[in-house]
Amino acid sequence: MRTAADVLAQLNRGDLPETLYLETGPVRLAVRCEVPMAVELRHHLKEALAEAGPVAATIDVLEGQNLSVQPDWIDWAREPGKAGRKDAYVDLDDGRLVHKIRTGMTFLQSSQALAAFGPCLAYPNQVINFINTQILNICKRDGWEICHAAAVTDGHKGLAIAGLSGGGKSTAILRMMDLDTTRFVTNDRLMVRAAAKGTEGLGIPKNPRINPGTILHNPRLAPLLSDERKAELLQMPPEDLWQLEEKHDLFISEIYGPDRMSFAAPLTEFWVLNWSRSSTEPTRLVDADLTERPDLLGAIMKSAGPFFQDANGVFLRDDEPLEPDAYLQQLKRVRIREVTGAIDFDALAAAGKDLFA
Questions:
Q1: How much helix, strand and coil, in percent to the nearest 5, is found in the chain?
Q2: Of 148, 357, 181, which Cα lies nearest the Cα of 259?
Q3: Would you state the pLDDT for residue 79?
Q4: What is the pTM of this model?
Q5: Angle made by CA atoms 145, 303, 196, in degrees to the nearest 5
Q6: Residues 271/283, Cβ–Cβ less than 8 Å
Q7: Is the pLDDT assigned to residue 82 strictly greater than 90?
């Protein structure tokens, strides 16, 4: 199994009756799949659904299919601070296979074809992640950089929030959604690019998947948990609740109403959460210069990961470093502020209210 054609020869792509068209900013995609997956994707991606037309890429979703011959998978090295095996890959002459170790999902990434196969219906979020990966790939090849950040906009200003994993960016960005004028851009991946009229931001069509701590800190999100589960969680020590990984889908339109998402946005502010649960200092927002603060820039930068294939067809390696200068160039006209002191979401929400006033 050396080529994408060898992989495709083991799969059946003939019976895919549904085609969904998706549009995010300048990127248009088509997704071919069976009816049950189409129903699932329409629910998750409804804000990005578009009319039929020319697309930059077509993705096939093949429920329940697997390779008859498994390759010798190589583990993809995880980022510092991350434990456990997650992704494995094998390079082909003209593409790459990526395997999700925990779920058994497999993905073909190549210029010849894009395919997701395995237990797709059981793990729709991994299919959605693969779809969004194509948006990220297309944009990165066109000069955008990928940030590990959440973002909102009011159409005139745009705020991105970054921080270490578990630092509270989802909770913080959803507090900004309590303002009537804001629209949700993205929860975890933000593309940025400097332009003639300012800095552009572009999110991906994926609703947030949030932990119970985020839900309990926001009464608006209460319907996402049963009363019984809320009672159990409230009995947990605060530190355990803060660390708990228990993802819940939050559909923006169902909680905040229609027309509350905007994938494209001007980007004017970037806040980096560098606060602490052990601090007794008041929460403060302090202007920062990323050229002098590589630690803050490190919280913003995000690897394109094992799926990224550049314009020449070359895939990213897991030991390939990120390019700080590329981010500094794209963010040079964005106000950067460091959030320090104690973790206080009310204080941060007040600062957001001032920003968007």
A1: 30, 30, 45
A2: 181
A3: 75
A4: 0.93
A5: 5
A6: no
A7: no
Sheet holding 264-267, edge to edge: 145-147, 190-195, 198-202, 264-267
Where do the domains of the chain lie, and which CATH numbers do they carry? Answer: 4-141 (no CATH), 145-208+250-355 (3.40.50)
Q: State the Cα torsion 31-32-34-39 to the nearest 10°.
A: 30
Residue 14 backbone dihedrals phi, psi, to 5 degrees: -80, -25
pLDDT at 47: 95
In tens, the pLDDT along 99-157 reads: 999 999 999 999 999 999 999 999 999 999 999 999 999 999 999 999 999 999 999 99
Tens digit of each residue's pLDDT (9 = 90 or more) over 298-326: 999 999 999 999 999 999 999 999 999 99
- For tokens 């085609």, name the residue: 19
Distance CA 191, CA 155 (A): 17
Q: Which of 124, 129, 123 is nearest to 109 (CA)?
A: 129
Torsion angle, CA of 84/92/138/291, rounded to 10 degrees? 50
Which residues are 28's β-sheet partners?
A: 23
Q: Distance (Å, rounded) from C-alpha 356 to C-alpha 350?
A: 10
DSSP conformation class of 158: E
Rounded CA-CA distance 94/73 in Å is: 17
- Give 142's DSSP letter: T
Residue type, 231: A
Taking a C-beta distance cutoff of 8 angstroms, is the pair 110, 40 a contact? no
The whole-angstrom separation of Cα 49 and Cα 151 is: 21
Q: What is the pLDDT of residue 257?
A: 93
Residue 16 identity? L
